[in-house]
Structures are given as C-alpha cells and as structure tokens.
Task: inverse folding
C-alpha cells in the first residue's frame, strides 16, 4: 500500500480503514502501521472503542509488573519480543518473577525475560479476527514512541477464562496513551578520542560478563566501538552471514545455545538446542533465516545485518564467547552464547563453533 497517513491525523476511523487495507495487502501489523506512516502503538490506540473493524483494542492500567504476575493462571502463552531485524517467540507459563526497582526478571524452564519497565509506556488488550473467523488475542506493550517492547499471545492451550479475568481486572477505559517521535540517536565519538589502552586493560580485568556494561559507561564507549578497539585480542569481525552456519551447525550437533533478542524494553532468551533451521526468501526480497521448533521460533532478516562480531569476555570461570549481530540502528539485535551456568566454564563445543565461524 502506497498511500500514507499523516502522523498528526486524529481521525481514528481513517486510520482503521487504512490499516485494514494494508493488512489485506498481506502486511504484518508492524509493517502495515509503517506503511500508513504511523507507529504500531498509535495504530493500536486508534482501534480503542466501538467500531466494526476486525482489530479491536482495550487500554490497560500502567501496572505492568502486576499484569505479568497475574498471567500464571492463564497457563501456556506465547512471549514475543522483537526489534527491526529479529523476532523471538517462546511458549510457556509466565511465572518465576523477581523485581528490583524498574527492572524485573522472569525465569523458568521456558520463559526467560529481562524487563526494563522504564521503557514501558502503554499497554493494550488486542483482539483481531482473521478471514477464517478465528480470533487472535494478545497483550501488547509499547514505549513512548509507539514501538512494541513486548507482546503476549494466547495459544490453543491458554485458559481464556483466566486471560479475560486479567483483562477485566486491569482494563482502564480512561487511559489515553499518546506517542511521540523518537529523537535521532546521539553521534558516536571518534575512535581516536577513546582511551583504547585503558579500555583493553579494564577488559582484561573483567570477572563477570555483567562488568561489560559498566566498563563501557566508564570509558564513554559505544558497544561496537569497543569491539573495534579490541579487535584481534578480544573481538573479531565476522562475515555478515555467520549466523547461518552458527544455527545450522548448532542444529546438526544438538548443541545447546542461548539466543538473546531485545527490544528497548525487554530481552528474551531461549536456552537449549535448535532443530529446524530454515532459510526463506520472501516475495518482497527479505532474506530470512528461521528456527521453527515446537515452543520456540526465531525469525532473523539476514539482509538487515550490517555487522557481526565474535566477542571474548574474561570471567572468573574463564573466557565467555558470544556472537553479536547488529543492524543499521547500531544496536545489537541478537546475541548467541553456549548454554552455561554460573560457576561453570563455557562449553568447548560452543567455543570451537564460534571461533571457526567465517571472518569478515
């Protein structure tokens, strides 16, 4: 669909009509919103209230942690976290929560999340009726720019009565969520202005992978910039398509890996082997590599990856090796590790696989 809706348009009926046409053209919800010139959050907000379109939305109270805690009786749900390049879907029960301030964890055998509530701005219960008459039900959460931070979908095994009880408890018809455009990202300082020697010294002294974030902050260093400044020692630039042999070889050897995918407000993790790895070229030219396993799906656009890195972080348990993918945003869009528990060295098979991936 080529027609664009001005982002200041307040006519919700026009937005709904444009969106349903974009969906009829075969676009996914996020892409349909983009096609009409709006954020996905703004489009969902335009579907609140009484109307006849197939997508309907109810606003939820901004009690994000309480909503998540209330989901355990719903049973099996699908957690979805995505960014512009990667979609991560995982089935399981929302239980095993802990919280410290605006950061929460959900950790059980299936659902593993790192949640940053300071990025959560709006929440909706969304239903969409397909052409086959089936209704898709979801809870959808967005940041202040209308970008999805996390979504939760009902599955066949979901207790819909329990889900409706959650919606009834947290629905708030008075909520009126508004969205603002995102500011341009700050420019990255020139590599020559960095204390490269100090960075390498601090890197060598790391005792835990979590020390990495504090180190970057201390030196005012951007993530990929730190890789450039330690290249050949703690990092290696990989071929842009290194994720393909990574997934294929992991599947062939049943190697348990960890797959991290993040939005601005949530990081979602799969731990375990991957089995069904399938490339796909869409009609529009998008080049996908997919994992299509029971309970776990990954959809990664290889054509949007602009850099890939092998990264080695010293810890008290030895070197921890990761493969990190970036797209044009400059943010990491996916990370891969070998499955490892605190106090254990990483799997030799994982390190061998990662170290032998094709270089840039």
Result:
């Amino acid at each position: 669909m080529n027609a664009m809706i001005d982002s200041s348009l307040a006519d919700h009926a026009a937005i709904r009509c444009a969106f349903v046409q974009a969906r009829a053209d075969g676009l996914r919800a996020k892409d349909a919103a983009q096609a009409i010139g709006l954020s996905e959050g703004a489009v969902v907000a335009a579907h609140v209230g009484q109307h006849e379109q197939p997508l309907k939305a109810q606003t939820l109270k901004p009690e994000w942690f309480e909503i998540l805690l209330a989901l355990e009786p719903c049973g099996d749900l699908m957690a979805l976290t995505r960014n512009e390049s990667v979609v991560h879907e995982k089935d399981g029960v929302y239980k095993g929560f802990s919280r410290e301030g605006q950061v929460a964890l959900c950790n059980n055998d299936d659902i593993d999340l790192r949640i940053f509530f300071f990025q959560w701005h709006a929440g909706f219960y969304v239903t969409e009726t397909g052409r086959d008459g089936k209704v898709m039900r979801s809870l959808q959460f967005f940041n202040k720019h209308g970008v999805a931070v996390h979504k939760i979908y009902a599955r066949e095994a979901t207790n819909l009565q329990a889900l409706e009880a959650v919606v009834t408890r947290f629905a708030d018809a008075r909520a009126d969520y508004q969205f603002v455009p995102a500011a341009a990202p700050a420019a990255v300082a020139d590599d020559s202005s960095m204390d490269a020697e100090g960075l390498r010294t601090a890197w060598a002294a790391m005792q835990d992978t979590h020390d990495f974030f504090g180190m970057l902050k201390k030196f005012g260093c951007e993530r990929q910039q730190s890789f450039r400044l330690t290249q050949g020692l703690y990092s290696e630039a990989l071929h842009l398509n290194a994720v393909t042999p990574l997934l294929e070889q992991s599947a062939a050897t049943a190697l348990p890996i960890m797959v991290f995918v993040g939005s601005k407000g949530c990081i979602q993790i799969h731990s375990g082997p991957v089995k069904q790895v399938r490339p796909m070229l869409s009609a529009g030219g998008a080049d996908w590599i997919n994992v299509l396993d029971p309970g776990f799906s990954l959809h990664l656009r290889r054509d949007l990856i602009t850099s890939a890195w092998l990264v080695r972080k010293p810890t008290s348990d030895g070197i921890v090796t990761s493969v990190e993918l970036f797209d044009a945003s400059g943010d990491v869009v996916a990370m891969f590790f070998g499955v490892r528990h605190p106090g254990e060295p990483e799997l030799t098979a994982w390190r061998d696989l990662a170290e032998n991936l094709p270089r840039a």
Q: What stands out?
A: The longest helix spans residues 12-24. The two ends are 37 Å apart (CA to CA).
